Amino acid sequence: MQGKRFIYIIGICMSYAFSSFSQEVIPFDTANWDIKAQGYILENYKGYDAIYIQQGRATLKNATFLNGTIEFDVHLSNRQAFPGIYFRISGNNGESFYLRPHLPGKSDGNQAAPITNGLTAWQLYFGDLYSFAYNYHYNDWTHVKLLVNNDKAQIFLDYSKEPQLSWKLKQTPGSGQLAIGGSFAPMHFANFKYTTDPPELINYSVKETPLIDGIIKKWSISDKFEEDLLNDPDKLNDVINERTWDKTVEVEENSAANISWVRTRYNKNKGNTVFARLTITSSKEQTKLFTFGYSDRVVVILNGKAIYKGDNGYRTRDYRYLGTIGLFDAIYLNLKKGDNILLFAVSEDFGGWGIMGKCDNYEGIKVKP
User: What is the rounded CA–CA span in Å between residue 231 and residue 238?
Assistant: First the structure.
């Protein structure tokens, strides 16, 4: 009996030791981290052993993360920067949360977003479902705490007892790597630690956002091609006929379809453009108003003829313009009786590859991807 008690106590101690180890601060050094950045310095800063990292990431070695708690400190400046945490990273997919310290008090002062085939689509996932206003401070460390449990996540800044943001994760839950880093101005990070026990979420609440009335819910998506193939209107039908169509993509709660769920913008296959296709079957010759949004650029083609070209990219309209997607543009479609093929050639640089649209009314027409 005493032997069994001894084994039981040893088991408890071993379990406690493992749990405690997982919660210890992980030093920022090359033994623990794979650092890929434009530049970095390992130094003691403001009382902590820290990493000063610019334009890149440090990925934790020999570790995977599914559920748990992640904590770290970051020392912010008011320069434009995007320091944050990347988790469940597997290949080109994962989840992220980062700060925008140059936007204190602004509603988009930070960002939660999935990483889909290498794109962090902040131009598609925006608003109070994915960010919150926060008055950042620049004279001390900012503490960041992230809770992750299956398809749910919460952020707590500066030891807040209530989450500043709760959101639903987009990727199917799966184990992946952990990384910290960011772009533009460098930042100091310190005191990184994590656990792998599913945490109890605190007052988790995510409001439902209904789809826009009449929004097109599904689009057919072609293979990739180079945007400059669209430059000659007389050759558009050749470009169209060379395409393959093996994917569809559905809109999400923001009423936009994220093309990067089904196409990879940056890989060995050249191309920054796809066609998003609709077939509109009309009972007669008629004209319909079609309102749409896209990211970043578009050429609209109806029955083989180009009828619109636009640019909605970051800072294309003024230096503050973000290029977020919305129903900001409209065209009149001159439909023939029968099937009409409506194509949106959507080109992407960064920030989100998306398409959305709706007719003013659907009398006398049927729409399918």
Answer: 12
